[in-house]
Amino acid sequence: MSLDLPLVARGKVREIYDASSPAAPDRLLLVASDRISAYDHVLPTPIPDKGRVLTQLSVWWFEQLAPVLSSFGASHHLVSAADVPAEVAGRAMLVRRLEMLPVECVARGYLSGSGTVEYSRTGSIRDVALPAGLVEGSRLPAPVFTPSTKAEIGEHDEAIDFSAVVSAVGADRAEELRALTLALYSRGAEIALDAGIVLADTKFEFGLAGDALVLGDEVLTPDSSRFWPAATWSPGSVQPSYDKQYVRDWLTSSGWDRVSPPPELPSDVVEATRERYVAAYEQLTGTRFV
């Protein structure tokens, strides 16, 4: 796909185009593809409709979370999902250009994934101490902020201590990021649970418009979050999920070494992954995906 706009950047699953005009010089077009990434690699097999799910779910979440952002004097970057070129309708957002902050703001309400690995070794996740006796899938006593670096394509995000966030953005901004991240997670988790979904963890990305904090990128999608069916949640084992963990599990079982080029996904894995993304959208929003 080629748009008649200058390409600003290409990420693992998105392209960003310059959509500025004399009347709106700060506009970007954020286009979500059907590419899927895992273990810091972009896989060769796309997931049909994935870009549309990510975009439309993000648009829905920006609306749900606007009151939380407003209470912090913050906002989100979405301008419009309607005023976009016809060839990317449904998978593109017109957004404000931001000065993005160099950290991934991760919130965890449950123990899972790399968090479980680190907890089992140290009893904490970086500098966040956790109580003894937790297992994979355990609900934490309170949500925790476990930030990470923002890696380039092919590089690994690395968990960092809160002091590293302070060094990167300053003490006051770091405190603001932590408080807003946890507030957004808590509201998102509440909304998700009402829809029968456990929001185990998620990541947010923030930027600045002037001095004001702005929520950017995608938000609370199956690419940036762990979603579990609430009806089957049971601590002590890996939970079934609505996110790309299904793809990660298949890649692990395939014997791929995570270094060489990743394998093609079988058609049944592609279809099952699409079904999970669509199910997350429909269950959360209460509307049919079309």
From TrEMBL:
- Reactions catalysed according to its record: 5-amino-1-(5-phospho-D-ribosyl)imidazole-4-carboxylate + L-aspartate + ATP = (2S)-2-[5-amino-1-(5-phospho-beta-D-ribosyl)imidazole-4-carboxamido]succinate + ADP + phosphate + 2 H(+)
For the keyword Zinc-finger, the answer is no
Q: In which pathway does it act?
A: Purine metabolism; IMP biosynthesis via de novo pathway; 5-amino-1-(5-phospho-D-ribosyl)imidazole-4-carboxamide from 5-amino-1-(5-phospho-D-ribosyl)imidazole-4-carboxylate: step 1/2
Q: What is its EC number?
A: 6.3.2.6
Tree of life domain = Bacteria
Sequence ranges assigned to domain SAICAR synthetase/ADE2 N-terminal in this UniProt record? 8-261
Query: What GO biological process terms are annotated to this protein in UniProt?
Result: 'de novo' IMP biosynthetic process
List the keywords (alphabetical).
ATP-binding, Ligase, Nucleotide-binding, Purine biosynthesis
Q: Which family does it belong to?
A: Belongs to the SAICAR synthetase family.
Q: Which NCBIfam families match?
A: PRK13961.1 (NF010568), purC (TIGR00081)
Q: Protein name, please?
A: Phosphoribosylaminoimidazole-succinocarboxamide synthase
Organism taxonomic ancestry: Bacteria, Bacillati, Actinomycetota, Actinomycetes, Geodermatophilales
Coding gene? purC
